[in-house]
Design goal:
mainly alpha; about 375 residues; two-stranded antiparallel ribbon; Glycosyltransferase
């Protein structure tokens, strides 16, 4: 049983969440080709996982992404075709939790990147279990408390697991946002003061084109987007999508900044060139694609209907197919159509293939965070 992050009653969950998925699956979301590409990607992950379950990688965030790929395709802990592979990946992460609750065994500068991503995935695994794993519960409890305890005074987070006056950038906030929302989706309570302060911090990362000191009524009329830092700069597609995801995860569905950033995101998607070969190139680098896909899905409507098929088909057409080589058959590489992708080599292949599988599997809506719909009374259920 979780300590302070208590399990919510089923009756409370029925009140907290809208019934059904965000949007019903339409006939054109999944194609025979995308299903085949997803199957090849999962097979690559299974064949190249290794006995420890970590794909030879000590980055708990990337190992968690491998686990997420299996779960997004409907394989649950202990169940499904890849249930054993999923269990190995989750056990690798869980068994390396530090006494402080931290989920990171690589460089300290990756503390909150790896921690936020791993916590998010464990939250999803928790929600998909039929029989609760006490060890996972304890680790998840400690991980969630660490996120709350390391939140900086301005509502953000630092790269290292420490509380200080100011958080570093928006990329860290989105990792923790997804972890906290994952906790809520899986029936766990979250302190409202953590959410309130984080929302304030995320909004401060929005930069208009022009004078940022204008009244909000005037800022709404100007183009703009979420940026890496609070003073502007770092206005990438990844940060635009990350900001949207943060707002959605925190239940700020009507925030006017969302539409501004969706314009930036969809414009970039329209400019993606068609793949020229099966070299494993992605429409965006793995980090960007991960958030762009979620932003489209969460905001839904025309954004999702018009833009998702282009990214899906790009992944299908660029995936490496080499039936005689299990090292490459079904893989994607962390290279976007317009460059980017800081994680390379084998780790980059793990990252890119996991994200690609996740994007292709989103329409299945197996993950708790994809199937519960909007939180109708988010703040009233935070305790």
């Amino acid at each position: 049983m979780l300590c302070r992050w208590k399990l919510l009653l089923i009756s409370m969950l029925s009140v907290s969440f809208a019934v059904g998925p965000i949007c019903a699956q339409s006939e054109d979301e999944i194609t025979l080709q995308s299903e085949a590409a997803l199957d090849r990607g999962l097979a690559w992950l299974a064949k190249n996982q290794g006995p420890e379950g970590n794909w030879g990688c000590n980055d708990l965030g990337l190992v968690s992404m491998g686990a997420l790929a299996f779960m997004s395709a409907g394989h649950a802990p202990g169940r499904g075709k890849y249930g054993k592979e999923l269990d190995k990946a989750l056990e690798f992460v869980i068994s390396r939790a530090k006494p402080s609750g931290l989920l990171n065994i690589s460089d300290a500068q990756r503390d909150m990147y790896n921690h936020g991503l791993a916590t998010f995935v464990l939250g999803q695994a928790h929600g998909m279990q039929t029989t609760k794993d006490r060890k996972m519960n304890r680790v998840l409890d400690g991980a969630l408390k660490l996120i709350a305890n390391t939140q900086c005074e301005d509502g953000g987070w630092d790269y290292q697991a420490r509380r200080q006056a100011n958080g570093h950038d928006l990329s860290l906030a989105v990792m923790q946002a997804k972890a906290l929302r994952s906790a809520v989706d899986s029936g766990l309570e979250v302190p409202p003061e953590v959410i309130d302060l984080a929302i304030k911090s995320v909004r401060e990362h929005y930069s208009p084109v022009g004078n940022r000191n204008l009244p909000e009524s005037e800022l709404m009329k100007l183009p703009g987007q979420f940026t890496y830092g609070k003073g502007g700069g770092g206005g990438t597609i990844a940060m635009a999508a990350a900001g949207v995801v943060c707002m959605q995860e925190f239940g700020q569905y009507d925030d006017w900044r969302i539409g501004k950033n969706m314009e930036v995101i969809t414009a970039a998607i329209r400019e993606i060139p068609k793949p020229k070969s099966r070299d494993g190139q992605m429409p965006f680098d793995a980090y960007t694609l991960y958030y762009v896909g979620q932003a489209l899905y969460q905001v839904n409507g025309e954004y999702w209907q018009q833009s998702y098929p282009k990214m899906r088909d790009h992944l299908v057409d660029s995936q490496v197919i080499d039936a005689n080589n299990s090292q490459t058959n079904g893989v994607w590489r962390n290279i976007g159509a317009r460059g980017g992708g800081q994680v390379g080599g084998r780790d980059g292949e793990l990252y890119a293939t996991s994200v690609s599988c996740f994007i292709l599997a989103i329409p299945n809506r197996f993950l708790p965070i994809l199937q519960e719909g909007k939180i109708e009374s988010f703040k009233s259920k935070l305790k």
